Amino acid sequence: MRTMTNPHQDNFCGGNYQDWLEVMLLPECNGKCEWCIEKTGWHPKEKAPWTEIVKAAEATGRKNIILLGGEPTIYPALGSVINYLHHVAKCKVYTTTNGFRLNREYVHDSLRFLTGINISIHSYNLDLNYEITGIKLKTDQLKEAIQILKSSGCKVRFNCNLIKGHIDSQLTILDYIDFARYMDADSVRFAELKNDEDNFVDLHKIWGDKYGLNDDPYLKGCNKNVEIDGMHVNFRQMCGLQTPLRPQHPMLKEYPKQVLYYDGKIYDGWQIMKEHKGKYMDYVKLIEILEAFKNDSCDINETIDKIKECADGKEPVAKVSVKEVEKYSGGCVY
Hints:
Elements (H helix, E strand, L loop, with lengths): L19 E5 L25 H10 L4 E5 L9 H11 L3 E6 L6 H7 L5 E5 L5 H8 L5 H13 L3 E7 L8 H13 L4 E5 L11 H5 L9 H4 L2 E6 L2 E6 L21 E3 L5 E3 L2 E11 L1 H12 L5 H12 L6 E10 L7
Parallel strand pairs: 1-2, 1-9, 2-3, 3-4, 4-5, 5-6, 6-8
Antiparallel strand pairs: 7-8, 9-10, 11-12
Helix pairs in contact: 1-2, 9-10
């Protein structure tokens, strides 16, 4: 029998980072990342004006605000949101982006008052990053944008998800650090994938116990800040709440962070769509039945009887699912 236990105190779900507010500005993204956690995310139908969103953020009293998506730079009023939170609410403002809009003009017009920016790049080979994300980045343009961001006092971090076949070894991690240094990034985060067993790369298997990495991040800590070859590096491991490949620990107490959605409302943690399995339906057989009817190889009454059998759960292939919203467990998202 598994014992209920608290997570490590430095974990996102263990009470750390409670002075941060996460803000989902929009659900849309122009990328194609297969492992995107927002694929199962809940997206409210209503959209509040940006003025309502920033006032809701200000009302929380949090002084560290991170603007997320979707892809935040698609949000038309991003510059106005950052300006308000910086000048009026007196907050430190951060955002995470795939980098597709990072050029001299956009940085000057919209991002000048950021405290920090996370640029998601998942390979030091930008052509391979394009294959992974669908986002085409140009080295010179990106580097110039980074230099302009830094000249305004913004800290620049590269976010790299560890993906099997890409960044998945000590050598490729070190090569990525060299790339980040060349691009003038201040730091790098290497994160294991959530809920993706096929592409999962285990940091503990790569480095062992070095840098504080471990085989049970829930109990021993999932978030490690170190320095490698002069570069500030954050390692983000997934615990059993995020992957079945790690030990499973029923949570005794969770410290969820508040999330402000683009409908202007504050929620207790990120929301996901939970599936409840309902009535069986053999979709493959149903298609065969309808194709046969279309080709006049069976009559209407025979077709109806076969569909009824299919819906009654004989030889099920898939299930009809009813979805409802639930809080994302673990209290962490980015």
